């Protein structure tokens, strides 16, 4: 059995090295060109229509939850341990240059996640309770007429989610036990009960919780890092130069840093970006499909913002590790994944490591929360609404099993089961990309609607203000 699991682990390590990174990177490049790099050309508009309307009560079109709640629900899944521990490991193995390549793959990933979300909105449908549901299994079935592939995706995703929930809950238990000395059994039970209370309330309750918890946890962590940057602001130009220099130059070992080639910087930067923002994995579109919107592209803009915010969290970790200098210390060789905690404890002592521990707990518990919902939607697609509601309890139980260290052998299959959903999803995205390009052109080019209405409305408002101001001046007021 040990030899078999060793082969599985070796295969999954190889698979999620160059092969899968290349697949996702090439997909991002192709979709970016097909969509004419809209994520760069319209970046100002995207921010104004998403983060600029966070506090707006306006709802355009039909949906189950607000666009912002859909964003925070999707972000709850992407913001996880990888944003803290994963980035630290990437810098240790790939050097500071890995951060640059993480930014590159994030830019490409915006087009991929946008494509997923737009297709998910286009092919979503209402379930028996009147709630909107969607995701890869729906655009595979309805967009291409490949119901069999939608079934494959849902089944493979159910396996991946069961493994992933256990891994995430085990990370919660280990983190709390190490930081605060609380038993894994107590942490597992508490986490399971919290998730159950939220998930059993459906997507509306999940949206209500994530819209409050996700911004708080992100600001808590990123805010802590910003303080360290302010305290050591003089090193910021040096760190930025370090990132760009190491991205294109091989470097020998320095202190605890093991040294890295350009290829290693690219490999670890791409890997961290891909694993963290989840572009191409088909997860976030399930949450975005529930949003109220007047056009699929408008919600797609929120998914672009999602990638940006996730990358900001990754970048925060990178800057903390680099600006503190711990990336090249002897500690790096002992435990690379703990570098963020070490970096913040350098400035805040035990409060710094405590901040990382609390942030990690919040990141992971919200991830588990949304993963259980994703599992329910797969069962609903396969077997209907009633079996889906029953399946919640199985996946909620997986939280406790994982927390206490149960069924660890399943963890070896995590990356392989993930590849089984990513590959078919990416293929379908490429085949349906023309439809997304057409919807994008419709949104940005239809006279009197969507983008042009937003821009022309602002221009008209500005023109009226200028005219009024001119009138006031003319009349000496």
UniProtKB/TrEMBL annotation:
<protein>
    <submittedName>
        <fullName>Amino acid carrier protein</fullName>
    </submittedName>
</protein>
<dbReference type="GO" id="GO:0005283">
    <property type="term" value="F:amino acid:sodium symporter activity"/>
</dbReference>
<keyword id="KW-1133">Transmembrane helix</keyword>
<dbReference type="GO" id="GO:0005886">
    <property type="term" value="C:plasma membrane"/>
</dbReference>
<feature type="transmembrane region" description="Helical">
    <location>
        <begin position="213"/>
        <end position="231"/>
    </location>
</feature>
<dbReference type="Pfam" id="PF01235">
    <property type="entry name" value="Na_Ala_symp"/>
</dbReference>
<feature type="transmembrane region" description="Helical">
    <location>
        <begin position="144"/>
        <end position="167"/>
    </location>
</feature>
<comment type="similarity">
    <text>Belongs to the alanine or glycine:cation symporter (AGCS) (TC 2.A.25) family.</text>
</comment>
<feature type="transmembrane region" description="Helical">
    <location>
        <begin position="307"/>
        <end position="328"/>
    </location>
</feature>
<feature type="transmembrane region" description="Helical">
    <location>
        <begin position="348"/>
        <end position="372"/>
    </location>
</feature>
<keyword id="KW-0769">Symport</keyword>
<dbReference type="InterPro" id="IPR001463">
    <property type="entry name" value="Na/Ala_symport"/>
</dbReference>
<feature type="transmembrane region" description="Helical">
    <location>
        <begin position="243"/>
        <end position="263"/>
    </location>
</feature>
<feature type="transmembrane region" description="Helical">
    <location>
        <begin position="416"/>
        <end position="433"/>
    </location>
</feature>
<keyword id="KW-1003">Cell membrane</keyword>
<feature type="transmembrane region" description="Helical">
    <location>
        <begin position="393"/>
        <end position="410"/>
    </location>
</feature>
<keyword id="KW-0813">Transport</keyword>
<keyword id="KW-0812">Transmembrane</keyword>
<feature type="transmembrane region" description="Helical">
    <location>
        <begin position="179"/>
        <end position="201"/>
    </location>
</feature>
<keyword id="KW-0472">Membrane</keyword>
<feature type="transmembrane region" description="Helical">
    <location>
        <begin position="14"/>
        <end position="33"/>
    </location>
</feature>
């Amino acid at each position: 059995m040990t030899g078999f699991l060793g082969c599985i682990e070796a295969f999954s390590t190889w698979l999620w090295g160059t092969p899968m990174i290349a697949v996702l990177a090439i997909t991002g490049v192709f979709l970016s060109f097909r969509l004419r790099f809209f994520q760069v050309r319209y970046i100002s508009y995207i921010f104004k229509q998403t983060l600029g309307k966070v506090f707006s009560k306006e709802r355009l079109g039909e949906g189950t939850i607000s666009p912002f709640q859909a964003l925070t629900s999707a972000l709850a899944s992407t913001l996880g341990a990888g944003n803290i521990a994963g980035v630290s490991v990437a810098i240790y193995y790939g050097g500071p240059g890995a951060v640059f390549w993480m930014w590159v793959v994030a830019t490409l990933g915006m087009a991929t996640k946008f494509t997923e979300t737009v297709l998910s909105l286009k092919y979503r449908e209402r379930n028996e309770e009147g709630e909107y549901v969607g995701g890869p299994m729906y655009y595979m079935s309805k967009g291409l007429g490949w119901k069999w592939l939608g079934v494959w995706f849902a089944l493979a995703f159910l396996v991946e989610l069961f493994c992933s929930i256990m891994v995430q809950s085990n990370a919660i238990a280990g983190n709390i036990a190490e930081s605060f000395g609380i038993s894994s059994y107590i942490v597992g039970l508490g986490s399971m009960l919290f998730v159950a209370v939220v998930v059993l309330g459906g997507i509306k309750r999940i949206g209500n919780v994530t819209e409050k918890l996700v911004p708080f946890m992100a600001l808590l962590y990123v805010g802590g890092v910003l303080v360290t940057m302010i305290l050591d602001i003089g090193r910021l130009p040096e760190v930025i130069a370090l990132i760009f220099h190491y991205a294109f130059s091989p470097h020998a070992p320095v202190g605890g840093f093991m040294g890295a080639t350009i290829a290693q910087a690219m490999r670890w930067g791409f890997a961290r970006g891909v694993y963290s923002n989840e572009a191409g994995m088909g997860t976030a579109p399930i949450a975005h499909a529930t949003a109220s919107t007047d056009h699929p592209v408008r919600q797609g803009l929120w998914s672009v913002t999602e990638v940006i915010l996730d990358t900001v969290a990754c970048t925060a970790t990178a800057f903390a590790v680099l600006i503190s200098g711990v990336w090249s210390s002897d500690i790096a060789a002992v435990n690379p994944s703990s570098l963020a905690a070490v970096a913040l404890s350098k400035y805040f002592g035990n409060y710094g490591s405590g901040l990382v521990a609390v942030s990690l707990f919040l990141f992971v518990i919200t991830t588990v929360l949304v993963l259980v919902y994703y599992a329910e939607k797969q069962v609903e697609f396969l077997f209907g609404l009633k079996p889906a509601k029953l399946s919640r309890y199985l996946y909620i139980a997986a939280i406790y099993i994982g927390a206490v260290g149960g069924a660890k052998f399943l963890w070896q299959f995590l990356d392989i089961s993930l590849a089984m959903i990513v590959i078919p999803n990416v293929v379908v995205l490429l085949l349906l990309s023309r439809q997304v390009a057409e919807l994008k052109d419709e949104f940005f080019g239809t006279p009197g609607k969507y983008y042009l209405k937003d821009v022309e409305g602002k221009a008209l408002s500005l023109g009226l203000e200028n005219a009024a101001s001119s009138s006031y001046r003319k009349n000496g007021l």
